[in-house]
């Protein structure tokens, strides 16, 4: 018996073709673009298949790529309508950056920053002006400026407290040292030190915050005071002073007070020329003011 052959009817779809018929091996059931290695991008519409936005998506097929594409779509959608600022490139001009800083909240003028109340005293206004100018140059917004000012205020305040504490500790240590040396005569010698400083025009020394924190300087002033009260400089002219007159001594003293090296040696106990500087000053003062060196004359 002869086998019947089935002839496809006209208009029948290709899906009714022989089971041996197979589509090309491209991902997503599509043939690979250009006949090359199959890629998940082969399943995309041809007009967007080559877009660089897909370059970073490394997926073996469209099923793996779809969640990545969907996530990026959502993230991009969130940015729609947002106020975006383009970052200037390497060759951008100062004007390009100024435009960005302005959009980020930098005031048009350094004086436009809002300074937290009580941050700077009247004496610190020059520091404030400089701080505002530097902040403006750096492109800081007003929102960034405030916290920095608060940080500066807190830091300098802590430093000031630390300095005051160190000064108080130094004074206490100096007093302890001198009380041990001078014993019951401490108050009298301290008074002599102040009197000696006053006689030689250095009363302001004891008005400074650091006054009295160096035992060596206090010893020197006490010695000066003792010499004044006891008239130990004979004839108002110490030995070794030569023939210098009062006017010459006064001129020399003025020069010394303008000599930073001498002043540093005079006021620093640790300086190798400290003792010599004090002696030179005392000798010259004795010549310049001989009448003041002899009490009761």
What would you note in describing this structure?
The chain is mostly helical and 297 residues long. It has a domain at 169-293. The protein contains nine helices and no strands. It starts with 61 loop residues before the first helix and ends in a 9-residue tail after the last helix. Residues 1-30, 231-242 and 293-297 have low confidence and may be disordered.
What's this entry about, in short?
The chain contains nine helices and no strands.
Q: Can you write the helix and strand succession as a string?
A: HHHHHHHHH
The helical percent reads 40-55%
Distance between the termini: 164 Å
Rounded mean pLDDT score = 75
By DSSP, the count of extended strands is 0
Rg estimate, integer Å? 45 Å
Beta-strand proportion: under 5%
Shape: elongated
Number of helices: 9
Q: What oligomerization state is this entry in? A: single chain
Structural class, from secondary structure content? mainly alpha
Biggest pleated sheet: none
* Unreliable residue stretches: 1-30, 231-242, 293-297
Which properties best describe this structure?
disordered C terminus; single chain; mainly alpha; 297 residues; 0% strand
Set out the fold topology.
Elements lengths: L61 H17 L15 H11 L20 H13 L4 H41 L3 H14 L15 H16 L15 H12 L2 H8 L6 H15 L9
Helix pairs in contact: 5-6, 7-9, 8-9
């Amino acid at each position: 018996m002869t086998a019947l052959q089935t002839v496809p009817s006209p208009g029948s779809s290709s899906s009714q073709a022989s089971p041996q018929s197979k589509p090309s091996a491209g991902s997503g059931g599509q043939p690979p673009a250009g006949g090359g290695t199959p890629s998940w991008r082969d399943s995309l519409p041809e007009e967007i298949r080559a877009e660089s936005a897909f370059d970073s998506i490394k997926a073996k097929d469209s099923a793996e790529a779809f969640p990545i594409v969907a996530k990026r779509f959502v993230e991009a959608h969130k940015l729609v309508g947002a106020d975006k600022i383009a970052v200037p490139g390497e060759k951008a001009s100062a004007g390009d950056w100024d435009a960005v800083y302005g959009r980020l909240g930098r005031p048009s003028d350094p004086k436009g920053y809002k300074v937290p109340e009580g941050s700077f005293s009247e004496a610190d206004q020059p520091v404030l002006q400089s701080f505002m100018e530097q902040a403006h140059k750096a492109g800081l917004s007003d929102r960034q400026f405030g916290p920095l000012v608060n940080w500066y205020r807190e830091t300098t305040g802590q430093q000031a407290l630390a300095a005051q504490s160190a000064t108080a500790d130094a004074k206490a240590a100096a007093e302890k040292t001198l009380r041990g040396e001078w014993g019951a005569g401490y108050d009298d010698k301290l008074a002599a030190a102040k009197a000696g400083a006053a006689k030689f025009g250095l009363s302001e020394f004891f008005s400074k915050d650091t006054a009295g924190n160096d035992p060596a300087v206090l010893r020197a002033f006490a010695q000066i005071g003792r010499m004044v009260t006891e008239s130990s400089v004979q004839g108002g002219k110490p030995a070794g002073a030569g023939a210098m007159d009062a006017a010459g001594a006064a001129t020399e003293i003025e020069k010394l007070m303008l000599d930073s090296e001498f002043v540093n040696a005079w006021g620093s106990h640790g300086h190798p020329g400290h003792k010599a500087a004090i002696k030179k000053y005392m000798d010259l003062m004795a010549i310049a003011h001989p009448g003041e060196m002899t009490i009761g004359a």
